[in-house]
User: What shape does this take?
Amino acid sequence: MNRQEIEKLQAFFRKRFDLPSIIVKPRMQKSDSAEVYIGDEFVGIIFRDDEDGDLSYNFTMAILDIDLE
Assistant: This one.
């Protein structure tokens, strides 16, 4: 993902969740995805999917059972 895509995704997340502390960062040695943080805490990965000419982004977030307590 290029810097412009990352900035657009960050703006989308901040507006959608009304949370200005969300940060989207490029991944080291990976060009098809970016990391999502809330402050300093890693929360998930966004993958870029442009198969068949249809561009979309998939956000994956793992939730541990201990986080639910």
